[in-house]
Design goal:
By secondary structure, this protein is mainly α. The protein has one domain. It contains 7 helices and no strands. The model has no long low-confidence stretch (mean pLDDT 86).
Length: 233
């Protein structure tokens, strides 16, 4: 098997990493130090907006990357495209899990404060959990096929189907159902209840978390290629 070339971590990568670290440091400082208006029920937990929602934006961005590489793998059969599709899907799943956890915690200390309830099958919670199960099945599928070429093709087809469900399960369907989440049927969108000062932190947070996902993805691809080269010796 031909050796694969891992991404090179040169000086430009180091500069980009330093910029991302500085960017996220400023975002975190802004998230906790800048004063925010007191919103009914949410109070200070509204600061979770800077973390919970960007997790889902980041997941969706990495799902898009994964889907693109799966499509490229079906077209070329290149081993590197399968690796990139797999690793970007893994990073997407990590941010999806963090999005679900931060959502559960947010709900607990707002909607269910003073109760023993942690989960009530809110449409967005349920759809998010289903989405993560779909990607869990993707990783399980990969473990059941030994042949690299066959595994890559089948996984790519499944991954494209999984990616296509994301906008429907995380955005379209929950907005058509009754939910406590903003933007759902009968509830105002966050843009209607958040102050400009919150948006000044929220949008940089989205960019920052996506940038962190890129760093993780790049490192995971590098490690995966190095492992691949070692096992092919």
């Amino acid at each position: 098997m031909d050796k694969l070339t891992p991404p090179v971590s040169g000086s430009r990568y180091s500069v980009i990493r330093a910029i991302i670290i500085t960017w996220m440091t400023l975002v975190i400082l802004g998230a906790f130090l800048l004063d925010i208006p007191r919103m009914n029920i949410l109070e200070h937990t509204a600061r979770n907006l800077y973390f919970h929602v960007p997790m889902w934006f980041t997941m969706m961005s990495m799902v898009l990357v994964s889907g693109i590489y799966s499509a490229r793998h079906l077209a070329s059969g290149s081993r590197i495209t399968d690796i990139r599709a797999r690793e970007s899907a893994r990073v997407a799943a990590v941010f999806g899990v963090m999005g679900l956890i931060t959502g559960i915690l947010w709900a607990k200390f707002t909607w269910y404060s003073g109760t023993s309830v942690w989960w009530n099958s809110d449409p967005r919670q349920s759809m998010a959990a289903i989405q993560l199960l779909i990607y869990g099945a993707y990783f399980f599928l990969r473990t059941t096929i030994d042949d690299n070429e066959k595994r890559g093709r089948i996984a790519a087809v499944y991954n494209l189907i999984a990616a296509a469900t994301v906008p429907f399960l995380l955005y379209v369907l929950p907005r058509q159902m009754e939910s406590l989440h903003p933007g759902a049927d009968g509830n105002p969108a966050f843009s209607e209840i958040t102050a400009p000062i919150m948006r000044a932190v929220f949008y940089p947070a989205v960019i920052g978390f996506i940038a962190i996902a890129w760093l993780l993805y790049r490192q995971r691809v590098r490690v995966a290629i190095l492992k691949e080269n070692l096992t092919s010796d």
